[in-house]
Amino acid sequence: MNFLIVIMPFIGTTLGALMVIFMKNKMNKRIEKCLLGFASGVMVAASFFSLLLPSIEMVEHLSWLPASIGFMLGILFLLLLDSVIPHLHVNSDYPEGKKSKLRKTTMMVLAVTLHNIPEGMAVGVILSGALMSNLVVTITGALSLSIGIAIQNFPEGAIISMPLKSGGMSKLKAFYYGMLSGIVEPIAAVITLILTSTIVKVLPYLLSFAAGAMIYVVVDELVPSSQSGKHSNLAILSFALGFTIMMILDVALD
Q1: Contact status, residue 213 vs residue 104, Cβ threshold 8 Å
Q2: Residue 24 belongs to a domain
Q3: 199: closest CA among 97, 129, 115?
Q4: I want to staple 67 with a disulfide (CB 3.0 to 4.6 A). Which of 55, 87, 206, 238 is the partner?
Q5: Residue from 159, 145, 150, 151 nearest 222 by CA
Q6: Angle separating helix axes 203-217 and 184-196, nearest 10 degrees
Q7: Is position 94 within any domain?
Q8: CB 208 within 8 A of CB 55
Q9: What is the C-alpha separation between 253 and 140, in angstroms, rounded?
Q10: pLDDT band at 22 (very low <50, low <70, confident <90, very high)
Q11: In whole angstroms, what is the distance from residue 75 CA to residue 54 CA?
Q12: Distances (CA, A) of 38 to 15, 91, 146
C-alpha cells in the first residue's frame, strides 16, 4: 500500500503524457482550458483538506502558528526556486522569463519538475505522519492525497507532452519528456519520508509548507494560464469540478 501511495502520482503523469499518442494535430484550446482548471481545483482542495487542516489539528496550543509559518515558507521557497531556475510557463502565450542557453524543451521539463517537487513532498509528509500512528493523519488520508495528485497529474502530463508534439517533436519523444517530468515526485516523496520520520515535531510545519508550495504553483502557473484568452469559463467550471472531486475523495477515504 505504501509503495502504491508513493508511486501513484507518477502513474498519473505517465498516463496523461501517454495521451499524446492519440493526438493528431494541435491540442484543442477548450481541452487545454479544462485541463488547467481541473488541475487547479484538485491542487487547491488537496492543499486545504489533506495538508493545512491536518497541520492545524495536530497542534493543541496556537494551532494556527505552525500552519501559518509553514505555509508562508512554502510560498517563499517556490518563489526562490522560480527566480533561480530557468522557467517556462505552461501556456506558450506567456513570456519565457529569463533567457537561458537551455533548449525550450529542457526548460519545459524543468518547469514541470519544479511543480512536482512540492506534490511529491506532500505525499511523503502525510504518509510519514500516518506511519507514525498520528491520530489526525491516516493511511487513508495519505491515499486520498495521492489519488488526488494522480488525478491532477493526468492533465498535467497531457499539457506537457501535447504542446511538445505540436512544436514538431515526435510522439514517442514527447511522451518521454512528459513522463520524465513526473519522476521527481516519488523521489521527493521518499526523501521527505526518510527525513520526516526522524523529526516528528516539525511535521505540522512540513504539511503546511507543502500546501504553500502547491498553492504557489496554482496561483503562478495554472490559474493565469487558464484565464488567458478565450474559454476561461470552461476553466472555472473545471476548477469547481476538480475541487469537488478532491474534496469528496478526501472525506470519503478519511
Answers
A1: no
A2: no
A3: 129
A4: 55
A5: 159
A6: 160
A7: yes
A8: yes
A9: 5
A10: confident
A11: 18
A12: 16, 15, 16
The two most distant CA atoms of the chain are separated, in Å, by 57
The mean per-residue pLDDT over the stretch 231-245 comes to 90
pLDDT at 169: 77
| Cell numbers linked to 163 | 504542446
Q: Look at residue 143 and tell me if it is in a domain.
A: yes
Predicted TM-score (pTM) of this structure: 0.68
In a domain, 54, yes or no: yes
- Between CA 225 and CA 47 the distance in angstroms is 20
Confidence of residue 100 (pLDDT cuts 50, 70, 90): very low
Length of the chain: 254
What 3-state DSSP class applies to 63?
coil
| Separation of alpha carbons 239 and 123, rounded Å | 22
Taking the CA atoms of residue 187, residue 188, residue 192 and residue 195 in that order, the dihedral angle to the nearest 10 degrees is: 60
pLDDT tens-digit profile of 166-197? 767 788 888 888 888 888 889 988 888 887 66
* Whether residue 89 has pLDDT greater than 60: no
39-51 confidence digits (pLDDT tens): 788 888 878 887 7
- Residue 84: Cβ-neighbour burial (10 angstroms; 0-12, 13-18, 19+): exposed
Range of the structural domain that residue 13 is part of: 2-19+30-253
* Residue 14 neighbours by CB distance under 10 Å: 21
Q: How many domains does the chain have?
A: 1
Q: pLDDT per residue over 104-133, tens digit each? A: 455 555 556 666 776 787 788 778 777 776
